[in-house]
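Quiz preparation item.
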């Protein structure tokens, strides 16, 4: 069984297309089935008198490909391969030639007819665009090429074809992909896959053991490749408008050598790598409450620094946090603050920290209030415990830990949650994790200043956000990080009513998605579902008043 760290290695080396149920494997299996049926059918006079051996082989090939694809889950790339094989088989059956581009277009049309939502899958674009560019390159080839050059040009075309999508969606380019594919393609396609398929018919299991041994060798080679410097290039995800220009650039580069202005393709690809990120001014900070379902994760950026407050659950690290960090152009966290020992706050930390065999995200400091036996603390990254009075300044923005007192005796992990206050010359924000009314009272006794942006304690639970706490803060914005229709029914209606009575604008991640505040002399708010609306949200959420809010 393939492990999660192995999938990460496959992605970073660009060989995922080989390990998954790829078109190459389906076509190979269909070809093997056709060859066997053709060999046996020709030797039977009874069978050949009723159906030509070539047509019997076509039927067998299509059926084998279809059965194998259904068993494999019928993903979009699998659908594309099966449908292209089906269209090609129909052409051979009718003995009428059909352009390969027409076969591609027919498969595309049938996939969209069968599954219109396939366009939402990254695999759809990677699969069909890669094949389209290979067809384009083949159609423009002049003369015959040696086999080795044809193989290299095919790999080059596949790499270029996937480049714009990889940068746009994943924000990274596997630099070691050509080397990894040069090693993996012969091993997987010529040896491992045929041995694994034939091993299904081997009662001794010898062939399967050989396939496993070769795959183990391949995995060790990938691990060795990833020890090299710069295995992948991290890039800030460019805007969607760059994609058509980049795709045209790829098409130009795949034209035959000698075509005038072919070099313009490189210029069209440059915006993928050199899109400038908007910079914050000194004294400004950006606070983004990520949509991590029922949990909490807040990204805070200044001009040159970045802090992540909690990580949500484990799945959020790869699905939400890492894409957001890449899109923001963040390649290193100055501080990872883990407020307390609850899975909905620190579940994604092991992936960021590189626990076990996973790849780490560069982090300078871990600030936490975790118990000594927490496995996260086995990381070699510098660590400090949250303590009242800790202060630091980044780029004209002040950070202050308001809680926890080192001698405080807590009944549960929530009470030990770190509380962080961020402020510049004009405004402030408070992130109080999951503290309850008792800890709120301690903060009030120490003197709690008014705060413009408050992340409601404990996701809006009834056990927190007392009247005294809200009155002292007088927030302009109250943010509730909660999951859609969560089992705890957060935020509680009474808590919402208390913040509303204090004049705060109520914002919820389960309704608005991620919330981004840019805080300078003014506070600018952007809601993810207002920036990138989806039709399935419009029936339940439509509030243009808070799409972009500016406070004095």
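Solution:
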């Amino acid at each position: 069984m393939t492990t999660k760290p192995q999938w990460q290695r496959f992605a970073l080396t660009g060989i995922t297309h080989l390990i998954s149920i790829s078109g190459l494997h389906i076509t190979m299996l269909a070809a093997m089935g056709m060859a066997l049926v053709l060999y046996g059918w020709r030797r039977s006079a009874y069978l050949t008198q009723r159906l030509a051996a070539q047509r019997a082989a076509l039927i067998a090939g299509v059926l084998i490909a279809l059965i194998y694809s259904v068993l494999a889950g019928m993903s979009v790339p699998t659908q594309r391969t099966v449908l292209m094989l089906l269209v090609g088989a129909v052409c051979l059956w009718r003995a009428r030639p059909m352009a390969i581009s027409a076969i591609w277009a027919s498969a595309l049309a049938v996939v969209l007819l069968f599954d219109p939502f396939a366009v939402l899958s990254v695999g759809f674009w990677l699969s069909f665009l890669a094949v389209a560019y290979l067809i384009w390159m083949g159609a423009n080839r002049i003369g015959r090429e040696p086999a080795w050059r044809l193989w290299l040009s095919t790999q080059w075309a596949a790499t270029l074809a996937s480049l714009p999508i990889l940068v746009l969606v994943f924000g990274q380019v596997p630099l070691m992909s050509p080397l990894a594919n040069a090693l993996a393609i012969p091993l997987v396609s010529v040896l491992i896959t045929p041995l694994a398929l034939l091993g299904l018919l081997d009662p001794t299991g010898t062939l399967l053991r050989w396939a496993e041994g070769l795959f183990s060798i391949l995995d060790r080679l990938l691990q060795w490749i990833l020890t090299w410097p710069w295995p992948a290039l991290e890039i800030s995800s460019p805007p969607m408008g760059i994609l058509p220009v980049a795709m045209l650039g790829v098409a130009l580069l795949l034209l035959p050598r000698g075509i005038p202005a072919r070099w313009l393709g490189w210029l069209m690809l440059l915006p993928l790598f050199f899109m400038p990120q908007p910079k914050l001014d000194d004294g400004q900070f950006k606070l983004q409450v990520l949509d991590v379902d029922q949990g909490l994760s807040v990204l805070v950026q200044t001009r040159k620094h970045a802090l992540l407050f909690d990580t949500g659950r484990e799945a959020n690290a790869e699905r939400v946090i890492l894409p957001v960090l890449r899109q923001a152009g963040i390649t290193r966290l100055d501080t990872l603050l883990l407020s307390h020992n609850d899975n909905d706050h620190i579940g994604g930390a092991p992936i960021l920290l590189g626990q076990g065999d996973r790849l780490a995200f560069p982090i300078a400091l871990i600030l936490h209030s975790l118990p000594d036996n927490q496995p996260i603390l086995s990381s070699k990254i510098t660590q400090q415990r949250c303590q009242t009075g800790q202060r630091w300044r980044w780029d004209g923005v002040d950070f202050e830990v308001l809680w926890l007192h080192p001698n405080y005796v807590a009944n549960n992990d929530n009470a030990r949650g770190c509380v962080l206050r961020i402020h510049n010359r004009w405004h402030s924000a408070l992130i109080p994790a999951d503290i309850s009314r008792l800890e709120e009272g301690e903060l009030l006794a120490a003197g709690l200043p008014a705060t413009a942006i408050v992340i409601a304690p404990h996701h809006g639970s009834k056990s927190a956000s007392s009247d005294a706490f809200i009155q002292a803060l007088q927030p302009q914005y109250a943010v509730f990080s909660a999951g859609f229709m969560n089992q705890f029914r957060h935020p509680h209606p009474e808590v919402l009513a208390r913040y509303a009575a204090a004049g705060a604008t109520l914002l919820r991640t389960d309704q608005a998605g991620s919330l981004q505040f840019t805080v300078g002399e003014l506070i600018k708010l952007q809601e993810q579902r207002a920036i990138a609306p989806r039709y399935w949200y419009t029936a339940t959420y439509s509030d243009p008043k808070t799409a972009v809010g500016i406070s004095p």
